């Protein structure tokens, strides 16, 4: 069971959903939502109401591809100071992680933000410093702001930023799941607002709710989806009105548009998804590591990389399986010995399930 500050409200929402006697499959795309759902037992509670919820490609570390990791490993081997967030440092490429490279003596550093990487560049003017920019629309504005702030010339960004709406389109186009509703991510939505999701409801007939991160938010999001289904409606509804506004964060959107342009991008577990990536514009390419180190990285472009044997992270990110379906979960694959990124990242479904199933 879960603990709520207002249990009466939670019980009232559950009661309303039960009365509708509905069978529905929902998907969310946010690690924080997954944490809330598993921590408070909402998945089990909602199953009793006829609703199942799966986590889609909502973990930015998890969807980063082995090729992107291998490119960072190669830059480290060639003498660059490689920087990234802690979770990303520990995600395995084809055979090893940046953390493994650090243990071997290469200059790989964990940073808490891109500003830390810029500081390292100022402190090491004779060395190339590369920041691995990972994340969705939530973290991309910080990368964009850094680029227009004119950082030192020895600093560059290996851009792995992705955007969410076209990944949702890919899920629906692939057609492996019949989804009855989508719970959209609160953090991303604070930046992009509501409009970028509207084509999904219009073109695919899918109800959507932008939800916050408290247990009540998630339950209310499910209830709002249920109401849309029962009323035969399909639109984007905003449960998280206290934070998410119709137009989103205009200032952040402006800086994103100034620095980045959409590009086709591969996600782990997916084929290339059109318009789902962010590419640094040509006028800022002096800070684009993929351009700056093009000659160094070109040998990897056509290399075929393989996922770890037995790892089901790709299927997890498409919402096809649960962590318990993976034969490696809790056995060969644990947070201290991760095989795939879904066990490394605190936003990964395997990591979340493992942490709470241990309690």
Overview of the structural elements:
The radius of gyration is 21 Å and the shape is globular. The chain has a 5-stranded parallel β-sheet with strand order 2-1-7-8-9. It has helices spanning 7-19, 31-39, 42-47, 60-63, 66-77, 86-89, 98-103, 114-123, 140-148, 165-174, 186-192, 198-204, 215-231, 250-259, 289-292, 294-297, 313-317, 341-344, 349-357, and strands at 24-28, 51-55, 81-84, 108-110, 129-135, 155-161, 181-184, 208-210, 236-238, 260-266, 272-280. Helix 1 (7-19) runs parallel beside helix 13, helix 2 (31-39) packs parallel to helix 19 (349-357) and helix 9 crosses helix 14. The relative contact order is 0.16. The longest helix is centred in the middle third of the chain and has 17 residues, at 215-231. By secondary structure, it is of the alpha/beta class. The protein has 3 domains: 7-58 and 170-238, HypD, alpha/beta domain 1 (Rossmann fold, 3-Layer(aba) Sandwich), CATH 3.40.50.11750; 61-163 and 248-300, HypD, alpha/beta domain 2 (Rossmann fold), CATH 3.40.50; 314-350, no CATH class. Helices cover 42% and strands 16% of the residues. It has 19 helices and 11 strands.
Q: What's a quick, concise take on this entry?
A:
With 359 residues, the chain is of the alpha/beta class. The protein is built from 19 helices and eleven strands. The protein has helices at residues 7-19, 31-39, 42-47, 60-63, 66-77, 86-89, 98-103, 114-123, 140-148, 165-174, 186-192, 198-204, 215-231, 250-259, 289-292, 294-297, 313-317, 341-344, 349-357, and strands spanning 24-28, 51-55, 81-84, 108-110, 129-135, 155-161, 181-184, 208-210, 236-238, 260-266, 272-280.
């Amino acid at each position: 069971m879960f603990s709520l500050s207002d249990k009466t409200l939670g019980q009232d929402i559950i009661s309303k959903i039960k009365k509708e006697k509905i069978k529905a499959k929902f998907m969310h795309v946010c690690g924080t939502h997954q944490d809330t759902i598993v921590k408070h037992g909402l998945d089990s509670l909602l199953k009793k109401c006829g609703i199942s919820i799966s986590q889609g490609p909502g973990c930015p570390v998890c969807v980063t591809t082995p090729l992107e990791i291998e490119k960072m490993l190669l830059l480290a081997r060639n003498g660059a100071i490689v920087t990234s967030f802690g979770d990303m440092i520990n995600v395995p490429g084809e055979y090893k992680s940046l953390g493994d490279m650090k243990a071997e003596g290469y200059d790989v550093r964990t940073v808490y933000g891109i500003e830390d990487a810029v500081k390292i560049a100022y402190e090491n003017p004779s060395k190339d410093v590369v920041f691995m920019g990972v994340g969705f629309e939530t973290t991309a504005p910080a990368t964009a702001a850094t680029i227009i702030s004119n950082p030192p010339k020895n600093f560059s960004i290996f851009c792995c930023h992705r955007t969410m709406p076209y990944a949702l389109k890919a899920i629906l186009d692939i057609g492996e799941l019949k989804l009855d509703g989508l719970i959209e991510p609160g953090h991303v939505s604070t930046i992009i607002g509501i409009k970028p999701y509207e084509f999904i409801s219009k073109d695919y007939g899918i109800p959507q709710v932008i939800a916050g991160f408290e247990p009540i938010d998630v339950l209310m999001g499910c209830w709002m989806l249920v109401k849309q289904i029962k009323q035969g409606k399909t639109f984007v509804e905003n449960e998280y009105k206290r934070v998410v506004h119709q137009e989103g964060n205009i200032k952040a959107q402006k800086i994103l548009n100034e620095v980045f342009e959409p590009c086709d991008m591969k996600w782990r577990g997916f084929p290339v998804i059109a318009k789902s990536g962010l590419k640094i514009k040509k006028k800022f390419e002096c800070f684009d590591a993929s351009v700056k180190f093009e000659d160094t990285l070109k040998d990897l472009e056509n290399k075929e990389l393989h996922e770890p044997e037995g790892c089901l992270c790709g299927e997890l990110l498409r919402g096809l399986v649960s962590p318990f379906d993976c034969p490696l979960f809790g056995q060969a694959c644990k947070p201290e010995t991760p095989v795939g990124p879904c066990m490394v990242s605190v936003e990964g479904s395997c990591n979340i399930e493992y942490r709470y199933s241990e309690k």
